[in-house]
Write a structure and sequence with these properties.
The protein is α+β, with helices and mostly antiparallel strands. It is built from 4 helices and 10 strands.
Length: about 240
């Protein structure tokens, strides 16, 4: 996805959760940092929030430009959409809880997606759960509610630099089916595709826009120089 382009994720024919990873296409060591984005923006993101990258880069990789679920707000349980609270489902936790190997989790899907492009399982990182409704209960425990998206809803973001993105349509579908416990069953009938569109805006709309620079902090050398100059207090 080239810098200055827009990516729109669309629930084509029904509700569906998607797990999104984002890297700098020119240097995949730089990637979306879910934890810092939670701190700088919110635990649930929407239009005009920015998706920040990891250290030592610390800059917006993308800016959310449109969200048809922006007015969803908070449901009766306190759930909100587009969540950075949780992370991807994975076969390691599944094995720990069920003693069963199952290789079609979001983590597995993301790994398979990036392998042909020179990345590995170590590059897959904490996700943005697009269209997912989540929150923390009174015991401060994470919960998931069924996805409220309808056919045609979308989530759109602007590439602040050249991006490489991977998206998993969650095997839990719209999360309306229990995945654990006595009522758990195969949620395949609740799974739907997510459409991916990439658009190039008219050049006039980008007048004055510049790609964000890396963090201004100069690194350990700057610290050493400041210490030598006597401008840094050393705490002991």
């Amino acid at each position: 996805m080239p810098a200055g382009h827009l990516c729109r994720l669309v629930t084509v024919d029904g509700p569906q959760v998607g797990d999104l990873n984002i890297w700098n296409a020119n240097d995949p060591r730089e990637r979306m940092w879910a934890a810092r984005t939670r701190q700088l923006q919110a635990a649930h993101v929407t239009a005009f929030d920015r998706l920040w990258s990891n250290l030592p880069f610390l800059r917006p990789l993308a800016t959310i430009t449109d969200d048809t679920l922006a007015d969803y707000g908070r449901d009766g349980d306190g759930g909100r959409v587009h969540d950075l609270l949780g992370t991807r489902c994975d076969p390691y936790v599944n094995r720990m809880l069920s003693r069963v190997d199952f290789d079609f989790h979001c983590h597995s899907n993301l790994v398979r997606a990036v392998l042909p492009h020179g990345l590995t399982e170590f590059d897959v990182h904490d996700v943005l759960n697009v269209f997912q409704c989540t929150g923390l209960n009174e015991e401060d425990r994470y919960f998931m509610n069924p996805c409220p998206a309808r056919p045609g809803d979308h989530f759109e973001f602007f590439a602040e630099t050249d991006l490489f993105c991977a998206l998993s349509t969650c095997p839990g579908g719209d999360l309306s089916v229990p995945l654990w416990g006595p009522d758990a069953r195969d949620p395949l009938d609740t799974c739907h595709p997510i459409g991916v569109e990439v658009h190039r805006p008219a050049p006039a709309l980008l007048t004055g826009w510049q790609q964000p620079r890396r963090a201004a902090y100069g690194g350990a050398r700057a610290d050493a120089a400041a210490l030598a100059a006597g401008v840094v207090r050393v705490w002991t």
